[in-house]
Write a structure and sequence with these properties.
The complex is a heterodimer of chains A (307) and B (531). Chain A is mainly alpha-helical. Chain A has a domain at 93-304: Orthogonal Bundle (MetI-like fold), CATH 1.10.3720.10. Chain A is built from 12 helices and no strands. In chain A, helix 5 crosses helix 7 and helix 6 (143-157) crosses helix 7. With 531 residues, chain B is α/β, with parallel strands linked by helices. Among the domains of chain B are: 271-362 and 444-524, 3-Layer(aba) Sandwich (Rossmann fold), CATH 3.40.50.300; 369-442, no CATH class. Chain B contains 19 helices and 20 strands. The chains are: A mainly alpha (307), B alpha/beta (531). The A-B interface holds A 7, 11, 123, 203-205, 207-216, 218, 222-223, 226-227, 300-303 and B 57-59, 62, 82-83, 85-91, 94-95, 97, 99, 102-109, 116-117, 120-121, 152, 154, 165, 168, 291.
């Protein structure tokens, strides 16, 4: 087990390296640069800026400098938020995104698995139909629609909840963004669980369990559910990575100071270092959660146990 | 009602709601299971033999329902609330199923799975139940049970899993054990062990066994009484001796006669060798991922030499994993193999894809699975004429169609079949289509890989007749691969017995069947129950 984890972590190094390399050059090949503003800067100012940020160096040297610095944890200064390094910006925003994402993940997972299980057990009933319809809406309606609609209903018309901002960080402020963030994922979990649960209920070993007179609850919970959760667990990794690293749309709509916004802002403004920083952050989350999920998977399914 | 009947079934019907209306799988049958006896329910696929028991046990699919009466010691089971039914099933009546690979939950240890019904029906905790599970595992002959009790199903072989199922079935000392095709998925030698085990445990525990099977040989050896089912009805019930010696119903007589029989005439000694393999070896590479260290080779076929004469049938017999199918594919150059392969006068050992292509139509292959080997999206006509596009591209559309009609007639199908799709045909008909696909190319050598194994006995006999007929009329040479000795006997001139990739024994069919020399061949022969 330990050797499995170590091997996986070792293989994360080349993965990260490739991700960094590709996104470094992709960013540089995008037209424009961090200082191409609507009103062009005077050439002298531009030259000075380029020199300050070493953007006048040949590309390969910039790349080498970035890699060597990144290894030591220095992701460089942000070009837009000039007083901050990228590491500082992420350190400041990440806790907000993490907290919101964690709640959203919890809601999506528990809600989705419950809804999916109920739908599977009552397959083709009105309840099943209702749950699946709602989750289709959840998947198809984009969150920049869900967010404002939720705000309109609960903050403006009913005035039960605040319309945005982190406020004092209490649950009241988190509910709406959390729901908007969780809804599409909840819908995915519900659909996944329903499908795999229906499949699990039709397996031969479920027939065995029923033939041996085990009560319906034991059959469903201990035998069908555990098998049905395997695909759900697989989806957990990309889902957790996406939710915990923040959503640009949700954070913008609800004015939450998380890291999700940096992705979009950085990309629009050609803030090379900020984009690179967030890319590395997401990559690390994806790698770590995939590892966690593989370990979980091994615990759930003895056939893929790692030794 | 028979006085000593512990399970009395009267006018039992099982019906399924399907998009095409209600389908009655069981049409009002009567059965009696007496204390301590073995009742065999025999029938071909679709006869309703399994659904009868599923109906009684409340295990029908959601769209199915059982109507009528099935009373266990005076307690009516049909329509019993699930909670009450659950006090009977798994305790008084238990079941083992056909599929040992999938009938156990892959996520729990076998010890836990045996313990679960014990805890549920008898109370107590899992620790006590596990102690009982250990006894049971020992009883059913699982080696090293103290260690195995913590194994997961995937760590056991098919035969061992079926033993675990039997342990589970015995755990609560049932009155009736229903065994639904318990050995169909197992190799013959394992089958014999499992059936002997069942028999000895039945004597020990005194329970009744309901044996659902299509295999008359098993019935004859193990059953006291037999019920023959066909299309949802019991056509005949009687003692085993009566059924086999004095069958009353035509259908029973037909079933008994369907056992493969007869022999083919051997080719003359002067017949030329048409396909020869010398020192053929096939290696499979295992493991070897990017970061994984373990990798190795597995020798599936180990130094096999055979010579097939024109008009001859060589039967290759062996259990699963013996390498018999791999050998067949290697001889047709469908797998990379070392050694020498000669077809007619040419050495084809080093032929590649393109050099083999002109020869392919002379070397054909028919597969076991008549369901999986025909494309569901092509008409039968398209399926059987596909090879002509490659091997006889000059043919006109009319000519292709004429050949298709000819090939279908030859395999005993209505030529109108060519405009229909495979799913409209039964298993036996599909196998005929697969044979027609090979025959249309006018092959010289056909490798038949378990062509009858997925078919019912009565259909099997017809396919064997067909294959023998085609062989005579076209002077074909066959390599016939099977695990089924009775089929091998009916088809082959010469038999090769394989195990672990090697030839254990080979010789003329009569010599192998009448006087096997090797222990393994003897074991194989003894494991077969002839009807």
């Amino acid at each position: 087990m330990i050797s499995f984890v170590l091997r996986r972590l070792a293989s994360a190094v080349p993965t990260l390296f490739i991700v960094v390399t590709i996104s470094f050059f992709l960013m540089r090949f995008a037209p424009g640069g961090p200082f191409n503003l609507e009103r062009p800067l005077p050439p002298q100012t531009m030259a000075n800026l380029m020199r300050t940020y070493q953007l006048d160096q040949p590309l390969w040297r910039q790349y080498l400098t970035y890699i060597t610095n990144a290894v030591t944890g220095d992701f460089g200064p942000s070009y837009i938020y000039k007083d901050n390094t990228v590491a500082e910006l992420i350190a400041k925003g990440l806790p907000y995104s993490l907290e919101l994402g964690f709640y959203a993940l919890l809601v999506a997972l528990i809600g989705g698995v419950l809804a999916g299980t109920i739908a599977a057990l009552r397959q083709n009933s009105i309840l099943d139909f209702a749950i699946m319809s709602v989750s289709t809406i959840g998947v198809t309606v984009p969150n920049f629609v869900v967010g404002p609609v939720l705000t309109l209903i609960f903050a403006v018309i009913l005035a039960w909840l605040p319309a945005g901002s982190w406020g004092d960080g209490s649950l009241r402020f988190l509910i709406l963004p959390m729901i908007a963030l969780a809804l599409p994922q909840l819908a995915v979990f519900a659909r996944l669980t329903r499908g795999s649960m229906i499949e699990a209920l039709h397996t031969d070993h479920i027939r065995t369990a029923r033939a041996y007179g085990l009560p319906a609850r034991t059959v469903v919970v201990t035998h069908a559910m555990r098998a049905a959760l395997l695909p759900v667990v697989s989806y957990l990794a990309p889902c957790a990575a996406a939710l915990l690293t923040g959503s640009a749309v949700i954070e913008t709509i609800f004015t939450i100071p998380g890291v999700g916004r940096y992705f979009v802002l950085g990309a629009i403004n050609r803030d090379y270092t900020l984009v690179m920083g967030t890319v590395v952050l997401v990559a690390i989350f994806v790698i770590v959660f995939n590892l966690v999920v593989d370990i979980l998977y091994g615990l759930l399914d003895p056939r893929v146990r790692h030794d | 009602m028979a006085a000593d009947s512990i399970l009395t079934v009267r006018n039992l019907k099982v019906a399924f709601d399907t998009p095409d209306g209600v389908v009655e799988a069981v049409k009002g049958i009567d059965l009696d299971v007496k204390s301590g006896e073995t009742l065999a329910i025999v029938g071909e696929s679709g006869s309703g033999k399994s659904q009868t028991m599923m109906g009684i046990m409340g295990l029908l699919a959601k769209n199915g329902r059982a109507i009528g009466s099935a009373s266990y010691r005076g307690k009516e089971l049909i329509g019993l609330p699930m909670k009450e039914l659950n006090t009977v099933r798994g305790a008084k009546i238990t079941m083992i199923f056909q599929e040992p690979m999938t009938s156990l939950d892959p996520l729990y240890t076998i010890g836990r799975q045996i313990a679960e019904p014990i805890v549920h029906h008898r109370g107590g905790n899992f620790k006590q139940a596990k102690a009982r599970a250990l006894e049971l595992l020992e009883l059913v002959g699982i080696p090293d049970p103290a260690r195995r009790i913590n194994s997961y199903p995937h760590e056991l072989s098919g035969g061992q899993r079926q033993r675990v199922m039997i342990a589970m079935a015995l755990a609560n000392e049932p009155d009736i054990l229903i065994a639904d095709e318990p050995t169909t998925a197992l190799d013959v030698t394992i089958q014999a062990q499992i059936l002997d085990l069942l028999k000895s445990l039945q004597e020990k525990f005194g329970m009744a066994v309901v044996l659902i099977t299509h295999d008359l040989g098993i019935v004859r050896h193990f059953a006291n009484r037999v019920a023959v089912m066909r299309r949802g009805e019991v056509v005949e019930t009687g003692t085993t001796i009566d059924i086999f010696e004095r069958p009353q119903a035509d259908y029973t007589r037909m079933l008994l006669a369907a056992e493969p029989s007869g022999r083919k005439a051997s080719p003359p000694d002067s017949a030329p060798i048409i396909l020869e393999g010398r020192n053929v070896c096939v290696d499979y590479h295992t493991g070897g991922g990017l970061f994984s260290r373990a990798s190795g080779t597995f020798r599936a076929v180990d130094d096999i030499t055979l010579r097939l004469k024109q008009g001859q049938t060589i039967g290759i017999v062996g259990e699963s994993g013996s390498g018999k199918s791999t050998l067949g594919r290697a001889l047709l150059k469908l797998l990379p193999a070392s050694g020498h392969i000669r077809f007619e006068t040419r050495d084809i050992s080093h032929f590649g894809r393109s050099t083999m292509r002109p020869l392919r139509h002379e070397l054909q292959l028919v597969f076991q699975d008549p369901y999986g080997s025909l494309s569901p999206r092509q008409t039968v006509g398209e399926i059987i004429t596909e090879g002509l596009y490659v091997h006889a591209p000059q043919l006109s559309k009319v000519e292709r169609d004429r050949r298709a009609i000819e090939a279908l007639k030859e395999v005993g199908l209505d030529p109108a079949a060519r405009n229909r799709y495979p799913h409209e045909f039964s298993g036996g008909q599909r196998q005929r289509i697969a044979i027609a696909r090979a025959m249309i190319l006018k092959p010289k050598v056909v490798i038949l890989d378990e062509p009858t194994s997925a078919l019912d006995r009565s259909v099997q006999g017809q396919v064997i007749e067909l294959l023998r007929g085609l062989q005579t009329s076209h002077d074909l040479s066959y390599i016939f691969i099977s695990h089924d000795l009775s089929v091998i006997k009916a088809m082959s001139d010469y038999v090769i017995v394989m195990k672990n990739g090697k030839i254990v024994e080979e010789g003329e069919t009569d010599a192998i069947f009448d006087a096997p020399k090797q222990d393994y061949t003897k074991t194989l022969m003894n494991a077969v129950y002839t009807a």
